[in-house]
Design brief:
Length: 288
């Protein structure tokens, strides 16, 4: 087995090794180094100058004991929190099968790599993954229902999508794909993503209510009229309006007003206000 304890190898191997932890951060690496032993449980290759994650057979395929992989800010000149002018061709290239053998992985950090898309194959065999960190990328598609890569991550508990938007591009509403349907207990971080807040986000709120989801969201992330949907989420709790709706003539409509109002429409088309709620505090609830 490769021994990092020898003086000769210590000079050649760029990472600091403590037990089964390989710390390769801030080593100005242009590729993932060879020599990480198969019994490694933690590998940190963050804050380097990687251009791409090489083909999986030469990088991670032997690390079948790995539980934590940190590739955050692995490529120099990653996405800034508040991009003014986006840099071209700055996404970190990751081989589709890069993580296929990491079946014991529980934490994967891909933050700050200017990723514009997520490959389904990256997560196909990561059934034990509980934490996925994707902040500071360009994954605005995550809020438009276009991501399908989470369907295999049934154990995911923490998903960080903070600061994921294009230059002067704000999602009209929050929409999650069907691949989120298996995530029954989740902490979802959305800090730094400006939204056009409107009543169209109610489906998103209902998804939160149906699942054990805790959202971290800044009160000032709505970029439109403050009388539209206001979402404020405490760090410990989130209170959602009830889904219960009165129904007349078999169907129900929602009406957006400065206060959340549910109304029903009889067959004649005349609106009849059926129920209205007022809430004690903006810090606890949503208003529509």
């Amino acid at each position: 087995m490769f021994q990092h304890s020898t003086n000769r190898m210590s000079r050649q191997f760029p990472c600091d090794v403590t037990g089964l932890v390989f710390d390769c951060q801030e080593k100005k690496l242009q590729k993932v180094p060879n020599g990480i032993t198969s019994n490694a449980t933690v590998v940190n290759v963050s804050k380097n100058e990687l251009l791409k994650i090489q083909e999986y057979r030469n990088v991670f395929s032997h690390l079948d004991n790995l539980t934590e992989l940190n590739l955050s800010h692995a490529k120099k000149s990653g996405n800034a929190p508040y991009p003014c002018v986006p840099c071209p061709n700055i996404s970190l290239g990751i081989h589709p099968m890069a993580f296929i053998d990491l079946t014991k992985l529980r934490t994967l950090d891909l933050a700050g790599n200017s990723l514009t898309e997520l490959n389904d194959f990256w997560f196909e065999n990561l059934q034990d993954l509980t934490k996925l960190l994707l902040s500071f990328n360009l994954l605005q598609s995550a809020f438009q229902g276009e991501l399908t890569c989470f369907s295999s991550l049934s154990k995911l508990q923490h998903l960080d999508l903070s600061f994921n938007y294009g230059h002067n591009t704000y999602p009209q509403t929050v929409k999650l794909s069907n691949s989120f349907s298996k995530l029954r207990s989740l902490q979802l971080s959305l800090h730094g993503n400006p939204f056009q807040c409107s009543c169209e986000a109610l489906d998103f709120i209902i998804w939160i209510e149906n699942n054990n989801v805790m959202i971290y969201f800044d009160f000032d992330q709505c970029v439109n009229d403050t009388l539209a949907l206001l979402i404020s989420i405490l760090t410990t709790t989130f209170i959602v309006v009830t889904k219960s709706m009165a129904t007349v003539s078999g169907w129900t409509t929602r009406r957006c007003t400065p206060a959340f109002t549910l109304s029903t429409s009889p067959a004649a088309g005349r609106e009849t206000e059926a129920a209205a709620w007022t809430f004690p505090s903006f810090s606890e609830i949503l208003l529509c």
